[in-house]
Structure formats: structure tokens, C-alpha cells
Specification:
Elements: E1 6-8, E2 13-15, H1 30-55, H2 63-79, H3 92-95, H4 102-119, E3 126-134, E4 143-152, H5 158-191, H6 195-199
Antiparallel strand pairs: 1-2, 3-4
Helix pairs in contact: 1-2, 1-5, 2-4, 2-5
């Protein structure tokens, strides 16, 4: 994924590395929204991939580091397939249509792992077993302590790492194929327009999110 150096002026953006450029043009409409959503999917998948890469060099202790990277990788991958109100969701059956039938089994496993274990506590992967420690008969008191045995299933295992990496790579390939196709379509359409009309087009605008917007659905320009 190409990383562009971008600076923001008072009114618009400046993208570095294009010496002949004079302006950034704002793209609008349904196809522009689709392109924007694909870019957000790409960003989540790239973040998930970086988490898996970081796992290979993360120290064994403290164990929370590797577990945090693992959970983040799963969550951000499945975020692309989530029921978002602000961007379209990827369809697993379409993304994996040319894969083996086991690919959907793997996808459903990670979806359940995220939904019913990492995000919500619903399945047996997390258990807390209450108990009481009973002393011997000649002790001063019978019950030494009330305890809860907190047990969590280990999901950060080689097979899961390999399966998630494959899912990320396949999903990224599908996302990038459509992204590049839309880019080519926009380029072709814009090249046919008079230069004066292009120069008169609006530039992209960015509004920094306000604190109250954390509760609100993102609006599309």
C-alpha cells in the first residue's frame, strides 16, 4: 500500500511527490463513496497484517503484548465484514468464492471468536469457576478462602495464525482489485473532461471530529 505524504492547509490538502500537480479534486457520488469505503477496508486489513507481522518479533513476556496484537488482528480483519452503518460490508461468500469449502469454516470460526469471545463474553472460551478451599478437620476454621478459577482458552496458535494471514491476504486482494478498477474508471472519466472544468472542481475538505461525534454515525460528503 502506497503511503502518501499529505499536509493540510487552511482550506484543503497538499499531497507531496507530484511536482506537476496544481490541485486535488474532490470525487463525489456513489462510486466515490464505494472507493472511500474500499480504502477504509484496506486500512483495516493493512493494520491487521501489521499486527501479525509484529507478533513475530514481540517478546514472550509480558504475554499481554502478543495477545493484544492477536486480538487486534482478528478484530480489524472482521471489522471489514461487520454490519457498519457508515460503509458497505464485505460479503465473505463473495470474497472466498474461489477458495476451498473450508475457507468459510475458517471465516466463521474467526467471526465467532470475535463476536462471542473477544468482543462479547458468550461462549466457553472464557470461564470463571467459583469454589471454596476446605481446610483439614483440625484447623481453626473450615473454609480457608472463596476463590474463582479464571480460565481462558488459548487461540494464538500456529494454525490460527496461518489461517488468519490467508484470510487477510485473500480479502486484501479482492479489495485492491475493485479499488484499482474504480480508480481506472475515475481516471478515464476525468481525462475526457475539459481542463477548465477540472480546474473548477471542488477540492477535498476535512473536518476534524468533535468530541460529541463519538456517539454519531459518520456522514458522507
Amino acid at each position: 500500500m502506497e503511503n502518501l505524504k499529505i499536509t493540510q492547509t487552511l482550506s484543503t490538502f497538499h499531497i507531496q511527490g507530484f511536482p506537476d500537480a496544481v490541485k486535488v479534486l474532490a470525487l463525489k457520488g456513489k462510486q466515490a463513496k464505494r472507493l472511500s469505503d474500499l480504502a477504509l477496508h484496506r486500512a483495516d486489513l493493512e493494520f491487521a497484517r501489521q499486527c501479525l507481522d509484529a507478533l513475530t518479533i514481540a517478546p514472550e513476556e509480558p504475554t499481554v503484548l502478543k495477545e493484544s496484537l492477536w486480538r487486534s488482528a482478528v478484530i480489524h480483519t472482521l471489522k471489514c465484514f461487520g454490519d457498519s452503518g457508515s460503509r458497505f460490508q464485505l460479503q465473505a461468500k463473495k470474497v472466498l468464492k474461489d477458495q476451498s469449502p473450508n475457507a468459510m469454516v475458517v471465516f466463521n470460526y474467526f467471526k465467532a471468536l470475535r463476536d462471542k469471545h473477544f468482543i462479547h463474553d458468550e461462549n466457553s472460551h472464557s470461564q470463571s469457576i467459583p469454589g471454596a478451599i476446605l481446610n483439614r478437620g483440625d484447623a481453626l476454621y473450615k473454609i480457608e478462602r472463596i476463590v474463582c478459577l479464571e480460565l481462558t482458552a488459548m487461540t494464538l496458535v500456529p494454525d490460527n495464525l496461518n489461517n488468519l494471514n490467508n484470510l487477510i491476504n485473500k480479502t486484501m486482494a479482492v479489495v485492491m482489485a475493485e479499488f484499482e478498477e474504480l480508480c481506472a474508471s475515475f481516471t478515464e472519466a476525468l481525462e475526457k473532461m475539459p481542463y477548465e472544468a477540472l480546474l473548477a472542481m471542488d477540492s477535498p475538505k476535512y473536518q476534524a471530529p468533535l468530541k460529541h461525534e463519538i456517539y454519531e454515525k459518520r456522514t458522507t460528503p
